[in-house]
TrEMBL record:
The chain crosses the membrane at residues 7-26, 46-64, 71-92, 98-119. It comes from the Bacteria. Pfam families: DUF4345. InterPro entries: DUF4345 (IPR025597). The keyword Nucleotide-binding does not apply. Keywords: Membrane, Transmembrane, Transmembrane helix. This is DUF4345 domain-containing protein.
Length: 130
């Protein structure tokens, strides 16, 4: 990873993997402590661990894209779509449900990664070959 354009993928990959582990690593302990609700239902545990898997897979793809030139464009496009989509969902929630003190910093970070990714896609339009 020799270029600053790769830093967006590397940082957001690490952040999303950590978020995934928080959501799914031990939901019966973490969710009551972090979000104030119990996770006893098997289906909810399964859903949270599936989210963890999605976050870990996507985060790993972004990290690989930060090191592998042939993956950069696809990983950056994936990152922009993910960060834009999750930001959109949080904005909708803010409009309908109110401001979340816990997730507002996440929204700001997601919007920053979204904008950074768009900037990188515009600036580095060629898919470079190794």
């Amino acid at each position: 990873m020799t270029r600053p354009k790769n830093l967006n993928l590397l940082l957001s990959g690490v952040v999303v993997i950590i978020a995934g582990v928080i959501y799914g690593g031990h939901p019966t302990y973490i969710m009551p402590e972090l979000l104030g609700f119990e996770v006893e239902d098997l289906e909810l545990k399964n859903m949270l661990r599936a989210v963890m898997g999605i976050y870990m897979g996507v985060g790993l793809f972004w990290i690989l894209g930060s090191f592998k030139t042939k993956l950069w464009y696809g990983a950056t496009l994936c990152n922009v779509l993910f960060m834009g989509g999750i930001s959109f969902g949080r904005i909708v929630s803010t409009q309908f449900d109110g401001v979340s003190p816990l997730f507002t910093p996440a929204l700001i970070l997601e919007l920053l990664f979204f904008g950074w990714g768009l900037f990188n896609l515009k600036k580095y339009t060629k898919i470079e070959q190794v």
